[in-house]
Amino acid sequence: MQVSVELGLCEMMSREAINPQIAPKDGNWGFDVSEREAMLPAGTVDNNVKRVYKELPQWEEPVSQTRARYEQIVKDLADDYPTENLLLVTHGEGVGVALSAFLKNATVYEVEYCAYVELKRPIFKKDQSFRVGEFEVLTHTGQTGVSYFLPSPSSKTS
User: Fold this and answer.
1) Residue 95 belongs to some domain of the structure
2) Distance in angstroms (rounded) separating the CA atoms of residues 68 and 80
3) Where does the chain cross the membrane (predicted)?
4) 158 falls within a domain
5) Looking at the domain assignment, is residue 105 inside a domain?
């Protein structure tokens, strides 16, 4: 298995997730991707990967923008590697968005430590190009550490 660091999967860059007292005053988090990659076993890092985000999001990123970022990064990475199985490692909010963005009307109310969401989508190959379908959420509530609810279907009365 090869890995790569994608900055778009980072924590929410806001006081909802990070205590503002520990946030750097100059906005520089001092996160050096090369330094982190050097900690991994030799041959693990995939140097051919093109990062979607070249830098960390700015401090005080609005929650709505963070959620949109998580949804978009899942789509972008899946589109960049349509024939690959991907394991995206992120923080709780990102895991919750991986479910709520692709399961209509789902409301995530708990994401446990080390929780995960499983998604799949159809890939159609024609000549040298790919066409993709919509993501399907395979995770059931509480099954993998993510708890959510769906609105109950409205019943008709006669």
Assistant:
1) yes
2) 18
3) none
4) no
5) yes
